[in-house]
Amino acid sequence: MTNAVPREAHDLGVPTKVHSRDPATFTPILTDLLRARFPDRQDLAVTGIDVPTGAGVNNETVLLDLAWKDSGARREGGAVLRLESDDTLFHYELYRLMRQQGRIPVPDVWGLTLSPSPLDKAFFFMERIEGRVPSDQPPFHTSGWFHDTAVEDRRAMWMDTIDVMARLHATPLDTLGILDRPELGATGVAQELGQALHYLDWALDGDRHRVLEETAAWLR
Questions:
Q1: Cα 139 to Cα 58: distance, rounded to the nearest angstrom
Q2: Contact partners, residue 65, CB within 8 Å, separation at least 6
Q3: pLDDT of 62 higher than 70
């Protein structure tokens, strides 16, 4: 006999990035930065700001609505602002390299600015691509639009994901020097294991977890 587990029990408590201040306070700065980046867009303005709450565990993420004039005609578009975390430069460079190689679909990235910066943090802008984003909180496989999508559509999305992963992993390693972390080990496998074990220590934060500890010991 199997006891039913309430859906709420699957809430993993994964936090999205906490935003350090109201993004609206730096709208004038963003406007000046984007006007410098796109001088051909006349009267470019940030017309809307949205902070995603269901996704975004790697960086502070801010979605921007933009409007400008092109030969007198009004145009609209979007951008994404990503603010500093420990891996900001890593993400920027990885997106840039993937875009350059053309193996997988990734947004364009522009304007990496390191500290000191007008936003008091390192940041970069990304092209904003419209679409539906599966949530991190609550996890998309337990509830939400992806969970409720027809099985055949979920299968199509899953297979597309596998295809993109296969193309990603076919990237020649000698073009991705930013992935090398010699302080974690002498080989790529050792570095990946070292990173995973470091993350495990961080996540447990002094607690004990028998299964994970035994798995880590087996991997070592």
A1: 15
A2: 46, 47, 48, 49, 50, 76, 78
A3: yes
